[in-house]
């Protein structure tokens, strides 16, 4: 009772704070001469504020951990997350956007350039924060935590008195919706008068903390979303913004946003989380309050946490899985149950934990439900979930109205034997509500069904593909689509005994991305160069390394130049899947400088200097590769570049003269290294295909690593063909 009274007091204080802010809005409406009575208006706003705060707190400040039966406060389970600066190359809408991004980066203090940044400090320091991370790394949890801290102002560590607005992109921006409409809908749902005008009024005054979660979950392209967000921030710059996205889907920069990446959890984070999870889970099972648990002679939660931690210490696979908060929750669920062993990979982890959750709910229904549910089983629940997941994912749909779900269930159950048709749809929906892996929530469209995390939907989609033998279709239609990356990885992990089929299908599709004359010539050059290199590297590594020499450069337009920088980023990740002994950092710096010099029309002397600098950095980074000096000779290249200095036109000369000099640099580079002379004249489509080619190769290797077992003979053959032209038999 004391806790509830304290919470109610906190809510009343918050309502008073927001009322004080909105008093100006009430005056604005009254002065406008509208039909609202002032007393009625004040009462309606106060009532709407209370409804908004309670709704926000219920939806975004509590969490139901997988395996627990009751929601718990986010603060009780939250682990302080750490970040590092994100430095990969993105696309920009314009040169102005890029210049603004670089200017802001230079203006930021040294704290944001480190690799051990505290999330709360970042949120306090940065007006515009872009949070990036791997799947299930804790991005949404971080946004919700900052929002919950904002609600507790001034008694929290968040420094700003702002009203948080949480906007999940799976729900908003589904077509041409704007962020303004999304905010207005949140206000309208809670009964605020004139919700859109209120949204504009608060935005203009800078009264909001806007949390935009999951750019990768929107049906809009990242380019569209980038434009939408940057335009909105430019229109309403006085508010604070935190945006999240998966790393692999983040392509177009948000310009003025500081971009940071969530770091994997270390041992201390894992230990702390395990203890908190076991404490919450123990309370849920035993029905004890926190005080009662503390007064108990024994601490079963601590004992369970210690047991989980010991098991993690003796298993390398489990320790790797534990670096993700969601995976660690599932591990805790399994290890505390004592009936389950540690799984072999992520797919196995999801399989075992989901089976445990479904089994518990089926048993509960059989014991407690008065309705006849003898036909309900874990198999039929799983069958329903994988069907819903796949139907939605194909349409990029992550939320479903109850009407749509009911139609799905009627259609699905009607296609099976009579005993399945007897199952009650309301009863199935009730079971779904209790699973924890999916939920039914209230939205602006009414009640909707959604998976509690997109990773669960991706797992069920992969299971559908696996069981319905749709691997070829998946590869053909979605291999280059980053939205499906996690589905491929789940599928590889569950394809026991036939993962080779998946990899061979991927390899066949990969060749279609490179089946163009200029790109084929590039592969031929890579293969020939690697064949004569004598360094102690794998053959496939040599071919990937050679791309750093041969990659198209000297482009005059910014967008394709930055796209080709992203190609190098993927190539670096792919190389590190095979070898990790080369340092490409300075090569990347020199590549970026040279790309910008051409795209931004630097003077000719600077451009020739940067070309020479890149030559030097490549020579230093690749000295251990030992390429054939008759083909790749950096000393010879540097000498020929030096001869161009005297010919460099000054900036006063015509653009045509300077363009001709750029062509000389490009021609000298290609001719000296025996590169195809047309390699620097790729179209946007060819650049896109080259990027897809590298991404798909990287994904194929990641799938191989995600598999439990694979034939060495089959994989060695696939590996030998990576970055080589496919020869017809």
UniProtKB/TrEMBL annotation:
One Pfam family named in its UniProt record: NACHT
Domain NACHT: 129-278
Domain NACHT conflict system C-terminal helical, residue spans: 637-724
Matching InterPro entries: NACHT_NTPase, NCH2, P-loop_NTPase
Tree of life domain: Bacteria
Span of the signal peptide: none
Protein name, per record: NACHT domain-containing protein
Species this chain originates from: Pseudanabaena catenata USMAC16
């Amino acid at each position: 009772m004391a806790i509830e009274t304290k919470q109610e007091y906190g809510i009343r204080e918050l309502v008073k704070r927001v009322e004080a802010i909105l008093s100006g809005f009430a005056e604005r409406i009254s002065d406008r001469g509208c039909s609202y009575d002032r007393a009625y208006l004040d009462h309606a706003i106060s009532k709407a504020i209370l409804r908004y705060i309670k709704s926000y707190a219920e939806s975004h400040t509590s969490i139901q951990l997988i395996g627990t039966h009751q929601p718990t406060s986010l603060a009780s389970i939250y682990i302080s997350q750490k970040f590092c600066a994100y430095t990969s190359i993105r696309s920009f809408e314009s040169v102005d956007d890029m210049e603004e991004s670089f200017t802001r980066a230079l203006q930021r203090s040294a704290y944001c350039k480190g690799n051990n940044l505290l999330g709360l400090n970042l949120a306090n320091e940065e007006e515009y924060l872009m949070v990036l991370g791997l799947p299930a790394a804790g991005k949404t949890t971080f946004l919700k935590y900052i929002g919950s801290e904002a609600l507790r102002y001034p008694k929290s560590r968040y420094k700003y008195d702002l009203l948080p607005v949480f906007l999940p992109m799976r729900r908003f921006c589904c077509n041409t919706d704007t962020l303004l409409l999304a905010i207005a809908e949140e206000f309208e749902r809670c009964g605020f008068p004139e919700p859109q005008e209120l949204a504009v009024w608060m935005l203009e005054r800078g009264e909001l903390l806007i949390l935009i979660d999951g750019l990768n979950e929107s049906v809009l392209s990242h380019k569209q979303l980038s434009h939408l967000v940057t335009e909105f921030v430019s229109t309403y710059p006085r508010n604070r913004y935190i945006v999240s996205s998966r790393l692999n889907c983040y392509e177009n920069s948000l310009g003025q946003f500081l971009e940071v990446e969530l770091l994997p959890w270390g041992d201390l984070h894992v230990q702390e989380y395990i203890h908190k999870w076991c404490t919450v889970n123990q309370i849920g099972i035993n029905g004890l309050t926190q005080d009662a648990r503390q007064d108990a002679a024994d601490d079963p939660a601590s004992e369970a946490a210690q047991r989980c931690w010991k098991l993690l210490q003796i298993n390398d696979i489990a320790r790797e899985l534990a670096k993700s908060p969601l995976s660690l929750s599932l591990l805790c669920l399994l290890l505390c149950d004592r009936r389950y062993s540690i799984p072999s990979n992520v797919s196995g982890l999801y399989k075992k934990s989901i089976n445990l959750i479904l089994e518990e709910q089926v048993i509960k229904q059989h014991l407690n439900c008065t309705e006849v549910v003898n036909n309900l089983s874990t198999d039929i629940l799983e069958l329903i979930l994988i069907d819903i997941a796949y139907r939605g994912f194909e349409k990029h749909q992550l939320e479903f109205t109850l009407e749509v779900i009911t139609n799905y269930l009627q259609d699905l159950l009607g296609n099976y034997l009579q005993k399945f048709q007897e199952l009650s749809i309301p009863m199935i929906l009730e079971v779904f509500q209790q699973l924890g892996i999916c939920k039914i929530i209230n939205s602006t469209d009414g009640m909707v069904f959604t998976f509690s995390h997109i990773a669960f939907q991706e797992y069920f989609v992969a299971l559908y593909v696996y069981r319905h033998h749709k691997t070829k279709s998946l590869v053909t239609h979605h291999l280059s689509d980053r939205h499906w990356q996690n589905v491929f990885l789940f599928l590889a992990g569950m394809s026991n005994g036939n993962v080779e089929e998946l990899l061979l299908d991927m390899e066949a599709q990969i060749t279609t991305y490179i089946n163009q004359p200029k790109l084929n010539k590039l592969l031929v050059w890579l293969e020939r160069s690697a064949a004569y290199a004598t360094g102690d590297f794998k053959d496939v590594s040599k071919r990937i390394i050679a791309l750093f020499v041969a990659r198209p450069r000297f482009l005059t337009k910014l967008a394709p130049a930055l796209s080709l920088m992203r190609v190098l980023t993927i190539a670096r990740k792919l190389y590190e899947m095979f070898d990790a002994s080369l340092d490409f950092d300075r090569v990347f710096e020199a590549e970026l400088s040279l790309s910008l010099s051409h795209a931004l029309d630097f003077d000719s002397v600077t451009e020739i200097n940067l070309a020479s600098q890149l030559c030097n950095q490549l020579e230093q980074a690749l000295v251990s590769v030992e390429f054939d000096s008759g083909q790749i000779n950096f000393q010879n290249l540097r000498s020929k570049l030096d001869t161009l200095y005297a010919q460099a036109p000054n900036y006063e000369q015509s653009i045509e003269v300077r363009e001709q000099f750029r062509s000389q640099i490009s021609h000298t580079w290609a001719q000296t290294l025996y590169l195809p002379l047309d390699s620097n004249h790729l179209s946007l489509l060819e650049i896109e295909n080259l990027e897809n080619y590298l991404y798909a190769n990287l994904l194929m290797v990641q799938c191989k690593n995600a598999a439990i077992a694979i034939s060495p003979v089959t994989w060695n053959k696939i590996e030998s063909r990576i970055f080589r032209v496919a020869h017809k038999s």
